[in-house]
Write a structure and sequence with these properties.
Length: about 130
């Protein structure tokens, strides 16, 4: 892919907006927004720190049962890269005040007719 198709400013701005909207919804446990920002398809995947979720229904069920307290976190080393006009990868590390472990998160975003959606996500936690 030619470099002029990577990180086009307008596309990068769109994905940044979607990514930080997701982050706000995540720490506030805004389930409708979290659901909106995932692709509503059986092929959507979310690998979490302790779960492997295949399909939007499994992801929705996880969101409904997840604790809604202690979700605040600080992001560091966030990198969002866009490829063309309809695909992006976002990665970040996160930290929680009450925990010394480092969290890592990666998302594959695709621009669909309904807007930018996460089609695959991976969350993991490692020791410092």
């Amino acid at each position: 892919m030619k470099s002029e198709f990577i990180d086009r400013p307008a596309i990068l701005a769109q994905v940044n907006e979607a990514f930080y909207r997701y982050e706000k919804a995540l720490i506030n446990n805004d389930i409708p927004v979290l659901d909106e920002l995932f692709w509503h398809d059986d092929r959507t995947i979310r690998f979490g720190a302790g779960e492997s979720l295949f399909g939007i229904d499994a992801i929705r069920e996880f969101r409904q049962q997840r604790p809604s307290k202690g979700l605040g976190r600080t992001l560091e080393n966030t990198v969002i890269t866009t490829f063309g006009e309809d695909m992006a990868v976002a990665s970040t590390e996160f930290y929680r005040e009450d925990n010394s472990r480092i969290g890592r998160q990666m998302q594959t975003w695709v621009k669909l007719p309904c807007g930018w959606r996460i089609v695959a996500a991976h969350v993991s936690v490692i020791s410092e």
